[in-house]
Amino acid sequence: MSGPDLRGTQRAEARVNVPDLIDLVVTRVLRILEETGPRFPLFVEAPSNPAAQWTTTADGNWCAGYWIGLLWLAAKHARDDSFRDRFLDAAYSHLPQMLAQPRSHLFAGLNHNYAGFLGFEVTGDAALTQVGLDGADAMRTLFDERAGQIPIGDYQTWPSFGPKLRSSMPADRRNVAAVDAIHTSVPILWRAHELTQEPEYREIAEAHVARHIDWHIRKDGSTTQMTQFEIATGLPLETFNPLAASPDGCWSRGLAWNIAGLAEAYVHTQDSAVLETLRLSARYYRGKADPELIPSWDLALPRPHAYVDASAAAVTAYGLLLLKRQPDSGAGDLVSLGMRVLAALVDQCVVTDHDSGNAGAVLHGCYRVPGRVAVDSELIWSDFYLLAALDLLSLP
User: Fold this and answer.
1) What is the pLDDT at residue 11?
2) What are phi and psi of 211, to 5 degrees?
3) Percentage helix, strand, coil for the chain under 3-state DSSP, each rounded to 5
């Protein structure tokens, strides 16, 4: 990528009113809490209708950490103490359902990271660090040393995959690595290392990143979704791309999680090879998503003829803006792109009318085109990454 477009960055920053948008999303979180109560929100099928109802789960499934994390962030930014207390109470009350889940899968890292470590950052409650450490230890246990990967593990996302989709991937995914693991499973290890200084957390994270680059990133910066490996040797056997349009496609949310995971890895390692790989994937995203910067659900598909995925844009913006933590890293071009993607997300997908019943919602998220699940919807992780990105911009 070329150097930062300073004029483009300035224009993007002018279009993102951070305090106003934070207030909007906090209002949205309050409305979601009122609608869903003790259950976990997952998606709204008809988000353009402010009266549309959330589809919920009892324990959050793979998204539990997103909802609890949203509650922590809403508490952090609530202007009213009574609302702050309500968000905190709700976050704590949702923890038992999440903690009752098994931890033998990659999503336990994401859930425990946002429910535990993020909660500690917001509240200062040291007990929440144990939630984070339990998740990091689960990833440490799941890590396959021969493969150098934290595999998918033993888990079934909800709604479950239909027969056609199941037939396009291995039935047993305990020896299958996934592109999203670099973001769902690895960041919690960096945090655990910072807290404990135990070298194994960092060593596993670094090993996973290195093998992830080898297995899941193509020469043009695009990504493939899954790699099955031989248990005895850890050697790769076959790749699968079930959530993309074709074996050669690029599932945009997988690419976005790859971007966010590489950005976090670079923040923690300052490894120039990681930065260059990140830049390669960001260049692919920009080339395929320009000029709108909200990608098709599969980036190999032309945007006007495919569903877009606002959640992929939200994850990408958040990931690139993580690099603001390293202002002298030479990644100004990536931060600039992150600002442009965030501004595009706000312009095209966020309900900014304060009088709307769903003000603050991120529309046009695409959960899963194969199987036709919530293909043009508000997704709980879209809302989370929007507020998480704004939170990064609110920091001094």
Assistant:
1) 67
2) -70, -35
3) 55, 10, 35
DSSP 113-143: IIIIIHHHHHH--THHHHHHHHHHHHHHHH-
Q: pLDDT band for 4, please (50, 70, 90 cuts).
A: very low
H helix runs in 217-368, sequence order: 252-269, 272-289, 310-321, 332-349
Q: Are the beta carbons of 309 and 298 closer than 8 angstroms?
A: no
Q: Which residues pair with 228 in a beta bridge?
A: 176, 238
Residue 242, preceding peptide bond in cis (omega within 30° of 0): no
Q: Which is nearest to 257 in space by CA: 334, 351, 186?
A: 186
Question: Per-residue pLDDT tens for 85-95?
Answer: 999 999 999 99
Query: In whole angstroms, how far apart are CA 123 and each of 1, 167, 282?
Result: 39, 45, 34
Q: Distance between CA atoms of 17 and 197, rounded to whole angstroms?
A: 38
Give the residues across from 54 on adjacent strands.
44
- The closest of 336, 331, 356, 349 to 385, measured between CA atoms, is 349
* Contact residues for 80 (Cβ-Cβ < 8 A; gap 6+): none
- For residue 240, name the pLDDT band (cuts at 50, 70, 90): very high
Rounded distance, CA 352 to CA 356, Å? 8
Answer whether the bond into residue 291 is a cis peptide, omega within 30°.
Answer: yes
DSSP 194-235: HHH--HHHHHHHHHHHHHHHHHHB-TTS-B--EEEE-TTT--
Residue 221, CA atoms < 13 Å, CB-side half-sphere: 20
Q: What is the pLDDT of residues 93-107, one digit of tens each?
A: 999 999 999 999 999
Angle between helices 199-216 and 272-289 (to 10 degrees): 40
